[in-house]
Amino acid sequence: TGMFVFMASAFLGNCWQLWVGAVLFAIPQILSIYERKFPNSTRLHGLMPVGVLKTLVMLIIGTYFARLVFSMLHSPESVLRNGFLLLSLPGLALSLLGLFGHDGADPKWTWPRQALGTLILGATVALVVTGW
Q1: pLDDT higher than threshold 90 for residue 20
Q2: Is residue 118 packed enough to be buried (19+ CB in 10 Å), middle (13-18) or exposed (0-12)?
Q3: In whole angstroms, how far apart are CA 81 and each of 17, 27, 93?
Q4: pTM of the model
Q5: Which of 25, 102, 90 shows the shortest CA–CA distance to 58?
Q6: Which of 19, 51, 89, 104 has the fewest CB atoms lying closer than 10 Å?
């Protein structure tokens, strides 16, 4: 979290959004220490995106959140600082949900599942390259 604050402060300066963002960044890290004490839902574990799928989901959600921030705010400084804070919320939500779905059966690797993985990887690369 210290490294996060150090790097982000170069872009944001010393503002309240930086410190709230640092707290939001630290909360899942601190709570993950006690992950085994949280109730576990194997169903939630099965629904949580992981790996490249999680990256794709975060890219899509982040794109919509960024568009929302740009449509609501017009000052570049305000967009940067408040966008920094608002764009951290989807990651925080996924991390907190992951605390309640931390264990479950690993899915079997099948050819259809691997083909779907290839499509997900392609969609992720296309999204990054095109800037959708």
Answers
A1: yes
A2: exposed
A3: 6, 20, 20
A4: 0.78
A5: 90
A6: 51
